[in-house]
Amino acid sequence: MAALKAKHQRLVLVIIALVALLGAGLLAAWALRNQASYFYVPSAMLGDPPAIGQAVRLGGMVQAGSLETAPDGVTIRFLVGDGAARVPVQFSGIVPDLFVEGSGVVAEGALRPDGTFLATNLLAKHDENYMPRELQDMSPSEARETVAETQE
Amino acid sequence: MHFYANPARFLGIARRLTLPLLIGGLVLAGAALAWGLLVVPPDRLMGETVRVLFVHVPAAWLGMGGWMTIAIASLAELVWRHPLAALAARAAAVPGATFAAICLATGSIWGRPTWGTWWVWDGRLTSMLVLLFLYLGYIALAGAIARDGASSRILAIYGLVGAINVPIINRSVVWWNSLHQPPSITLGQSAIDGVFLAPLLVATIGFSLLFGGVVLARMRALLAEAQAEARLRRRAAAPATEWG
């Protein structure tokens, strides 16, 4: 009986310790929710703008139809949006392969006084969808049919 | 639960399971990798780099699974004083660390062509790196305890406390804006097309079997080491008692 009690006592102690630990971890994660974010989204950047010239990151979707190349050939301008707000971005240099209109991007740089975000580096953000090339223009149901046909 | 606590009984089962697990794991993982590398079509955006997925994702899952093994075994050791639990926790550390390192390395190789960078300090990448460091700390602590013959309870507490990082890794892409994409596979649904998902799941099963086989083999080695040491100690002590 004594052994059983000791065992239960240990179990209760460990559970209490784990709950306290989990609480502490969650609180820490909650406190970090703004600081640990890798980038600003456009609505956050416009709502609570960082200081002019301060190095920050801006992340969002490259708006379709907004991408234009300057006459010098290496400078590009585009709009980054999150559905609620848009920020114009300017960048000079080589863009990653996955950087296209309509896909996600993270731009490193700083806000200029005129409201343009001057990027020093662009990172392409991949979304969670993985799809073969042949299926990308099809609707999900068409894609399923095609897959079913090839498997027969 | 204590049915398998008898080391002799455990060894009998482990001896029969180790080789089938290792061979099955090698065959399944090898087949899945050949399938993923040679048969699967390129991704619409990533192209050929999508093939990293079949190593990276199982390695990430098993890196986290390895620590969960340590945490559960540590709980069994602390609460029920299960004699094999400490052994299981210690045996899972090196394969777990290996998978975490493979996950970080393949992720970096995938990130360069996909994102345009080898490494960023976003929530997912940083918490995964912390997991690797936790493993290295655990392995060092286990080595020190084995050398000095200290109580392994501190190691079990470390294993339990470190488990807090696993849900943080899992949720990091949901809680914080990160460069790493949000989860593709959630309960019951997947944003990964079937042609990629099937080899991914086979590779995961294969790597899991390998992980199980390695853990069993290491547990057997640790048991044999302890037995050899006990025998040496007895032999060293025996003459002293005869003369005493």
TrEMBL record, chain A:
The lineage of its organism: Bacteria, Pseudomonadati, Pseudomonadota, Alphaproteobacteria, Sphingomonadales. This is Cytochrome c-type biogenesis protein CcmE. One of its GO terms (molecular function) is heme binding. InterPro entries: CcmE, CcmE-like_sf, NA-bd_OB-fold. Heme binds at H126, Y130. It is found in: Cell membrane; Membrane. Keywords: Cell membrane, Cytochrome c-type biogenesis, Heme, Iron, Membrane, Metal-binding, Signal-anchor, Transmembrane, Transmembrane helix. The gene is ccmE. Belongs to the CcmE/CycJ family.
UniProtKB/TrEMBL annotation, chain B:
It is a multi-pass membrane protein. It comes from the Bacteria. Its main location: membrane. The chain crosses the membrane at residues 21-40, 60-80, 87-110, 125-146, 155-176, 196-217. Coiled coil: none annotated. Residues 23-180 form the Cytochrome c assembly protein domain. GO terms for cellular component: plasma membrane. GO terms for biological process: cytochrome complex assembly. Required for the export of heme to the periplasm for the biogenesis of c-type cytochromes. This is Heme exporter protein C. It comes from Croceibacterium mercuriale.
